[in-house]
Amino acid sequence: MTMSRLRRRAEPLIRRGMHLYWRFARPMTLGVRGAVFDGEGRVFLIKHSYVDGWHFPGGGVESGESLVLSLARELSEEGNLILTGAPRLFGVYFNRAASRRDHVALYVVRDFRQDGVPQPNHEIVAHGFFPVDALPPDTTRGTRARLAEILGGQTPAEEW
Fold this sequence. Notes:
With 160 residues, the chain is α+β, with helices and mostly antiparallel strands. The chain has a single domain, classed as Nucleoside Triphosphate Pyrophosphohydrolase, CATH 3.90.79. The protein is built from three helices and nine strands; from the N terminus they run αββββαβββββα. It has helices spanning 3-25, 67-79, 141-152, and strands at 29-36, 43-48, 54-55, 58-60, 81-83, 88-94, 102-109, 112-114, 124-130. The strands form three sheets. Strands 4-1-7-6 form a four-stranded mixed β-sheet, with helices on one face. Strands 3-2-9 form a three-stranded antiparallel β-sheet, with no helix packed on it. The termini are far apart. The model has no long low-confidence stretch (mean pLDDT 90).
């Protein structure tokens, strides 16, 4: 069995285990994601080792962290991206697909620097800046929908 097939089979079990833990550790989960655009209008996306598809970088807000501090931490960890200006909160979404307790704050980031190319690791296996009209084929539906909202000037949906 290939690693990809094994990962796809294990993904629901891993996700359930994580959400079971979070149910007791956190009554509601809150995450942040960043739609990071470079000077050429390309968007930065990442690919995780434990879930299929290309996503915006981001993750869970830890106890004691503000949303912006959490975003800055996640961008640094996942993309070697350092905020150099204030990100703009675009929307807050209910992420029913992850859990009935999960919410995601999406920020638009245009002011940043990248201190070297990030190296793939156990969590992030691939990354890159992509033209918005030439996204990788397996970019997630949610990522594509959020890009359409941001670039089309639409009001954010309620659900991710």
